[in-house]
Amino acid sequence: MQSGNGVEAESVAAATDMRGKHWISAELKRLEQETRFLEEELEQLEKMDNASASCKEMLSNVRTRPDPLLPLTLGPMNPIWDRWFEGPQNSSGCRCPIL
């Protein structure tokens, strides 16, 4: 009867070993797939321009081109409007608590 127990123990060990091999194989395939994904992502990043270079280019374009929605003026359209943005001419005449 002991020989029967030995065969049974060997089949249990073989089944456990097969499950372990399957788990290791599945984990290895998952890691290979993740490695491929990361390599593809790295290739895409290497093909992209640096963000700072793109930002500098956009900033230079914005600074050199006038805004199409704003009128282009070389001076004030109405000089009377300037007094609203210059502030008080003398502080004794101003009663405004903010300025």
UniProtKB/TrEMBL annotation:
Residues 21-51 form a coiled coil. The keyword Cell membrane applies. GO terms for cellular component: plasma membrane. Its main location: membrane. InterPro entries: G-protein_gamma-like_dom (IPR015898), GG1/2 (IPR045878). It is found in: Cell membrane. It comes from the Eukaryota. GO terms for biological process: G protein-coupled receptor signaling pathway. Residues 25-99 form the G protein gamma domain. Keywords: Cell membrane, Coiled coil, Membrane, Transducer. Pfam families: G-gamma. The keyword NAD does not apply. PANTHER family: G PROTEIN GAMMA DOMAIN-CONTAINING PROTEIN (PTHR35129:SF6), GUANINE NUCLEOTIDE-BINDING PROTEIN SUBUNIT GAMMA 1 (PTHR35129). This is G protein gamma domain-containing protein. It comes from Salvia splendens (Scarlet sage).
